[in-house]
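Chain X:
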Amino acid sequence: MFPASWSRLTCRALSSRGQSTLSLFSGSEPANWTKVVSDAERIVGYPTSFMSLRCLLSDEISNVAMYVRKLVGTKHPLLNTARGFVNDNRNNLQLRGLIVLLLSKAAGPSHTASDLLSQGMVSGIYPSQRHLAEITELIHTAFLVHRGIVDLKGWTDSDGPLKDMEFGNKMAVLSGDFLLANACTGLAELNNTKVVELISSAIGDVVQGIYSENHNPIEENSLTGGVDVAAWEEHAFLSHGALLAKSCQAAMELAKHDKESQRLAYKYGKHLSLGHKLNSDLQPFVKSSVGEPSFSLSAAPVVFHRQIVGQEGWRQQLQQVKTKRNQLDYSKLLAAVKSEKGVSSAVDLCCYHSNKALEAIQALPSSEARSALENIASAITKF
C-alpha cells in the first residue's frame, strides 16, 4: 500500500513546510478561515465562494428554495445541506473549484496554445478553465443534495411525519437533478470532447461510489467482515477523489498541455482528495471532544485497526463495547481503536498522499499559485 518508512516523522517534516498556513480541511476560526479563502481567491482573481451564484439565483432554483422553506421544522437533512451553501466555516464548499483555478494559474498557457486563445486569459487563467471550475462545483453540489435523500424503509411515526420526509426527498431529487443538468449543459459548451469524456466519467465514478454505499455498505461490512484498506481507498477515490482528479486533468487539457502535464495534474487531485478524506476520518480520533464521540465504522482508522487485530479480535471488541441495549458504546470503541496502531497508520497514509500530491507539482514553475497548492497539500497533514 505504502512504504513502511513513511512515519509520523515524515508527517512532521511535511507539516513544517506550511507552519504559517491554516489547515484548509479541519476546523478553524471563521475569521481566519475567511482570510485563507480570500487570500487564495486573490491569487486566482476570482471569487470562488460565489462560483455557483449564477445558477443558484436562477428562477428555477428560486422556486425550489420556496419549496425547501416548507421543510423548516422537519428533520430532513436537505435543510442542513441548504444551510451549508450559505455558510460553512468548517469545510469550504467551493474548494474543488479553487484548486482547479490554482492549478490552472500555476501551469499557465502551454507552448502549443495559440495567441488567440491566450487573449481571453484573466489573471493567467483561461475563461474555459474558470467555466470548468464552476462545472466541477455544480456537480459536487448536485451530489451533496442527492446524498440528503432519506431511506424511508425503517421510518416510524416517532421519527417525525412521513409526508415531510417524502416531500424533502422529492425536493432533493429535483434540486440535485437540476444542478447536474446545468453542469452537463455547461460541459457541452466547452466544446472539448476529451474534457466531456473526463468529467462524464467522473460523474459515473461518483454514482458508482454512492451506489456502493447504498447497496454494499462499508459500514455493515465493518461489522461483519470483508473490508480492507485497499477497498477503503478504492471507495474513497470513487466518492471523493475522481471528480477533483479528472477536473485537474481537464484544466490542463483546456490549456493544451501535454499528456505528462495532464497526468501530474490528475495525480495531484487524486492524492490531495485521498489525503483530505483521511484527514476528515481522523478528526474524531485526534481531537478531544465533549460528549459521545461520533465517527463511522468505515473510517480509515477503524479499517486499519480491524486489519491489525484480525476479524475474530474485532468481533470480540464489538461485543465488549456493547451496552445493555445491545448498542455500541462509541467512547469505548474509540478508546479501543486508539489503543492500537490504527490511528498512526491512517496518519502515515495521510502523509504519504500529501507527499505524492507535492511531488506532482514540483515540475511547475515557482509562483504564488504553486505555493498555495503546496500549502494545501501540506495542510492535510495537520490535525
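Chain Y:
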Amino acid sequence: MLVLLVFCVGLGYVHGELKADPNGYIVYCPCMGRFGNQADQFLGSLAFAKSLNRTLVLPPWIEYINHPSSRVPFNTYFKVAPLRKYHRVILMETFMKKLAPIIWPKGDRTAFCYSARHGSSDKDSCNAKDGNPFGPFWDHFGVDFDKSELFAPLYYDTESAHEIQRWRDKYTPDKYLVLAFVGPPASFPVKKHHLYIQKYLEWSDNINQKAEKFIEKNIEHPFVGIHLRTGMDFKRACEHIDQTPTMFAAAQCIGYRQEFGKTTEEMCYPSPQTVTKDVKEWVKKIKAKTVFIATDNNDFIDTMSKTIKKVKFIRQPSPSSPHVDLAILQKSDHFIGNCISTFTAIVKRFRDIEKKNSSFWAFKSKESKQKDEL
C-alpha cells in the first residue's frame, strides 16, 4: 500500500482526473458548538491550512435540530468555488470517497490533538471518537483511528512564521500526508486578522434564492433585520457576562481589547423594552416599512407593535431555516444583532465586507459616543 501511495502521489492523481495534493491535507471535526461557532472556527481553520500550504478538507456542518447530531455537506449552505480564490479546498465527501482509500488508507490513520482527552479508556490517546458529536462524525465516514499524535506545544498561530515553520518541519507531507484533527485547528473566537476571509464565503444558490424569494414576497424596503437570542440557554450564559466580558463573539462590538466599550447583561440578553427602543430608533432613522425578525424563541412582536406603528413585523414561518434567516439579515437595510452571539457574528462579518451598517442591542461604542458629543 505504501508503494502504491508514493506512486500515486508522485503521478499527481489517484482517481480519474482528481489530483492528489503532494503538500498534504487537513481534515477536522467541527465538534465545537452549533452553526455560529462552527462558522467562526472555519475561518481560522482555512487560514491554518493556507499557512501550512495543505488542502483543507471541507467538513460537513454538524446540526442538532432533529437528531442528537446530523451532518450536512458543506456546499448545502456555501459555494465551494469562491473559497478556492483564497486556498485549495475539497469536500469531505469527495475526499473520503475518491482519495482517502489510497492516500489515507484504513489501518494507517492518525488522530491529532493538542493533548490527551482524559476520561476515556486510553489516557495517552486523543480518543478522537469518544462522545457526541465526535463518534458519529467520524463513523459517518467510516473512519477509525489507529494511533494518536499529541502535538503540544505547537499551536495554530498563523501570524507566527516561526510557529508555522515548526509545524512544517515536524509534520512533513512525506510522513504525514493527512493531518486529521479531533477539533477545529483554529482559535475561538475567530482572530481579528482572519475576519476578512469571510469575503470568500458565498451562500449556495439554494439558500440565496430562498432568501430573495422571501424578501420579494413578504418584505417592503427599506427594512430593518434583527436577531434575537431569547432562549433560556442564552439567558443562563449571559448571567456570567461580568466574569467573562469577552464571551463568545463579544469582540465584534467591544473590540478585541475592549477598546470600544464593555459588555453588560442587557447587551447579552436584552429586555423587550430595550429591543423596542432600539428597533424604533432605526425604523425612524431609515424610514423602515418592515422589520424582519430572526430568533430562536420569543420574537417580541406583541411588545414592539404596541409602540412602533405603521410597520410590518415578520419572521419566517415554522419550521424556519436559520441559514435563510442569515441570508435575509445580510440583505437588510440595517441590521441589529446580539453582540455576544456567533450567529449574529456571521451576519456582521458579511455586512462589514459589504460596508453595510450594523448595530447591537443596548450598545453604543465609545467612538460613536465621542462623535455625538462633538
